[in-house]
C-alpha cells in the first residue's frame, strides 16, 4: 500500500523545515542523554552507539555511515522526498550529537533518568519525523514500510528489531545498563505505537 506524501495535513516547505529541525534536535538530545549514562538504544542509532563504545569511534560519523545503505531502499519504497528528508535528518542528528557533547556537558545522570527522558524526548522527536514524512534511517525506514504494507504498527516493529540489538549489547555492556537501555527503547516505541497509526495520519 503506497504512502501519499501529500496526505492531510499537507506541510509547506517552511513547516517541514521547522518540524524536521525540532525533531532532529529532540533525537540528538535523546542520544546525548544515553551517552552520558553509557546506555544504548535500538536501530542504527543503537548500532552506532555500540560501535562507539567498543571501538572509540565517534558516534556522529558512525551513525551517518551505518545509515547509508538504507536510503536507496527508502527511495524505491517510499519515494525520493522521504529518502532525501531522511538523509537530511540523519545528517543533522549526526552533527548535533557532537555539538551537544561540547555545549551541554552532562555528568552524574542516573541511568533511569537518562532512559526515561530519552524515551520521551526521542519518541516525540521520531513521531515528529514520521509526521513530516522523514525518519532516522535504518530500522525506522523498514518499520514504516512494514506498517504501510501489513498494518503492523511501526513502534512494535522497531521494538522487535531493538531486542536483537540488546541481546548483542549484553556481550559488550553490563546487564544493568542494557536493562535501563531497554526501558528507554520500550518508552520510545510505546509512544510511536500509540500515536503513529495509519488510520489517523496516512491517506491511501
Automatic annotation (TrEMBL):
GO cellular component, one term: plasma membrane
Topology with respect to the bilayer: Multi-pass membrane protein
Main location: membrane
Localization per Swiss-Prot or TrEMBL: Cell membrane
Segments crossing the lipid bilayer: 57-75, 82-103, 109-130, 150-172, 178-195
InterPro entries the record matches: UPF0750_membrane (IPR051461), YitT (IPR003740)
Keywords: Cell membrane, Membrane, Transmembrane, Transmembrane helix
Name of this protein: YitT family protein
Amino acid at each position: 500500500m503506497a504512502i501519499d506524501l501529500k496526505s492531510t495535513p499537507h506541510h509547506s516547505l517552511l513547516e517541514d523545515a521547522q518540524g524536521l529541525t525540532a525533531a532532529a534536535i529532540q533525537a540528538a538530545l535523546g542520544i546525548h542523554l544515553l551517552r552520558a549514562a553509557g546506555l544504548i538504544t535500538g536501530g542504527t542509532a543503537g548500532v552506532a552507539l555500540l560501535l562507539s563504545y567498543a571501538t572509540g569511534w565517534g558516534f556522529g560519523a558512525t551513525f551517518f555511515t551505518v545509515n547509508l545503505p538504507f536510503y536507496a531502499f527508502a527511495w524505491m519504497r517510499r519515494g525520493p522526498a522521504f529518502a532525501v528528508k531522511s538523509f537530511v535528518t540523519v545528517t543533522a542528528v549526526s552533527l548535533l550529537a557532537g555539538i551537544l557533547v561540547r555545549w551541554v556537558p552532562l555528568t552524574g545522570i542516573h541511568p533511569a533518568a537518562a532512559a526515561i527522558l530519552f524515551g520521551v524526548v526521542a519518541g516525540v522527536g521520531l513521531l515528529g519525523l514520521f509526521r513530516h514524512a522523514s525518519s532516522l534511517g535504518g530500522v525506522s525506514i523498514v518499520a514504516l514500510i512494514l506498517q504501510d504494507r501489513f498494518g503492523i504498527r511501526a513502534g512494535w516493529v522497531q521494538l522487535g528489531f531493538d531486542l536483537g540489538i540488546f541481546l548483542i549489547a549484553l556481550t559488550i555492556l553490563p546487564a544493568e545498563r542494557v536493562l535501563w537501555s531497554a526501558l528507554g527503547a520500550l518508552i520510545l516505541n510505546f509512544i510511536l505505537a500509540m500515536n503513529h497509526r495509519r488510520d489517523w495520519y496516512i491517506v491511501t
